[in-house]
């Protein structure tokens, strides 16, 4: 499988579910916003977070691995083929899926190890 490590460092922010979606949340090319009855989760490049706002719950320092190409809904095991070897090597992830593909966020300090593990499993990275 072809993978690509995206350039930005990402943050994951949790805010109350009743809050409005802040404008900064959607101010980049790649972001994810998920609302449930329990929370509003925002994943975006760290540079998008407003400097004048203090968040109670934010986890920074994530790199994002994108599965290249469009994945058919009939395919099975794509995420597992990435997540399982990382878990076996004590690399935690935050997974996101879109209509087209999957993304894995890995802590910045583990990205080189994650790349090594995934390449060992037969995946290749398409970074320029």
Q: What are the SSEs and their pairings?
A:
Elements: E1 2-5, E2 10-15, E3 32-35, E4 40-45, E5 57-67, H1 78-88, E6 93-97, E7 102-107, H2 111-120, E8 124-125
Write down the domain tally.
Answer: 1
* Apparent shape: globular
Low-confidence stretches: none
Mean pLDDT over all positions: 93
Question: How can the largest sheet be summarized?
Answer: 8 strands, mixed
For this structure, what is the CATH class?
A: Alpha Beta
CATH architecture: 2-Layer Sandwich
Helix content range: 10-25%
Query: What Rg do the Cα atoms give?
Result: 15 Å
Could you spell the SSE succession in H and E letters? EEEEEHEEHE
| Structural classification | alpha+beta
The number of E-state strands comes to: 8
Task: Please report which band the strand proportion falls in: under 5%, 5-15%, 15-25%, 25-35%, 35-45% or over 45%.
Answer: 25-35%
- For CATH, the homologous superfamily is named as VC0802-like
CATH topology category name: VC0802-like
Question: End-to-end distance, in Å?
Answer: 17 Å
Q: Count of DSSP helices?
A: 2
Notes on the structure:
By secondary structure, this protein is α+β, with helices and mostly antiparallel strands. It has one domain (2-125): VC0802-like. Helices cover 16% and strands 34% of the residues. It has two helices and eight strands; from the N terminus they run E-E-E-E-E-H-E-E-H-E. Strands 1, 2, 3, 4, 5, 6, 7 and 8 form an eight-stranded mixed sheet that branches. The model has no long low-confidence stretch (mean pLDDT 93).
């Amino acid at each position: 499988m072809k993978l690509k490590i995206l350039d930005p460092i990402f943050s994951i922010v949790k805010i109350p579910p009743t809050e409005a979606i802040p404008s900064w949340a959607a101010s980049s090319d790649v972001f994810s916003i998920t609302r449930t009855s329990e929370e509003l989760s925002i994943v975006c490049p760290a540079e998008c977070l407003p400097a004048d706002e203090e968040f109670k719950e934010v986890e920074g320092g994530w790199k994002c691995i994108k599965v290249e190409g469009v994945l058919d809904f009939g395919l099975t095991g794509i995420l597992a083929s990435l997540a399982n070897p990382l878990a076996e090597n004590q690399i935690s992830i935050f997974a996101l899926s879109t209509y087209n593909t999957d993304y894995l966020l890995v802590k910045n300090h583990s990205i080189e190890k994650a790349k090594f593990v995934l390449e060992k499993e037969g995946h290749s990275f398409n970074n320029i």
